[in-house]
Amino acid sequence: MEDEKEFDLSEGQRISLLERTVSFNRKIVILLVVLSVVGLSALSTLGIVSLLEEDVDYATAAELQLVKKENEALRIQIAAFEKSLVQYRKIMDTSQASGFKEILLDQERSYQTHLSALRQGMRDLAKMMPGSRTWLDMYDEQMNMALEESRQRVQDLAAIQTSELRNKSAPAKP
Predict the structure, then answer these.
(1) Three-class SS string for 50-93?
(2) Phi, psi of 97 (to 5 degrees)
(3) CB of 124 within 8 A of CB of 85?
């Protein structure tokens, strides 16, 4: 009966039915074309990205174990070095190196005070004696050199680190 209904359609109805079918088919074809373009774009993008990405080598379990063993060996060495550092600090403290350093620094400061007083005394003496300008200039030059050498020795001594002085000046470790 349905077959008869299809044949009983008028010419306008047939054209309308045909246009709807063509329109539906056209929409399906456009949808398939769009989906295929999107799919091809996605595949080509994935292909390009996979070509550009770096090859990453992952560590095996054996390599990881080797690194762990090496890490543990280094920790043991660090502990041994820290222990020996404590021993060396004790040796430095018992050798009185920091005490000698303080004595030398005090001597240099005293020497600088003495040289400054001597220089001032020579200036006062030069003011009392006429024509003493030449020997005062030469004497001042020598005094300046001696003072500068003493200042350099103080800097050199201050740069020498001893554990006692370092512990006094260094902040406590948390």
Answers:
(1) HHHCCCCCCCCHHHHHHHHHHHHHHHHHHHHHHHHHHHHHHHHH
(2) -60, -40
(3) no
DSSP state of 9: -
Buried b (16+ CB within 10 A) or exposed e, 88-118: eeeebeeeebbeebeeeeeebeebbeebeee
Neighbouring residues of 143: CB distance < 8 A, sequence distance ≥ 6: 115, 118, 119, 122
Q: Which amino acid is at 156?
A: D
**Cα dihedral across residues 6, 10, 13, 18: positive or negative:** positive
Contact 146, 115 (CB under 8 A): yes
CA dihedral 67, 71, 74, 78 (to 10 degrees): 170
Contact by Cβ (8 Å): 115, 76: no
When the pLDDT of each residue in the chain is averaged and rounded to a whole number, the result is 82
- Reported as a single tens digit per residue, the pLDDT across 63-102 is 889 999 999 999 999 999 998 888 887 776 666 767 778 8
Q: Letter for the amino acid at 136?
A: L
Give Cα 14 distance to the centre of its chain.
81
**Which amino acid would we find at residue 24?**
F
pTM for the predicted model, two decimal places: 0.39
Does the structure show a pLDDT above 50 at 174? no
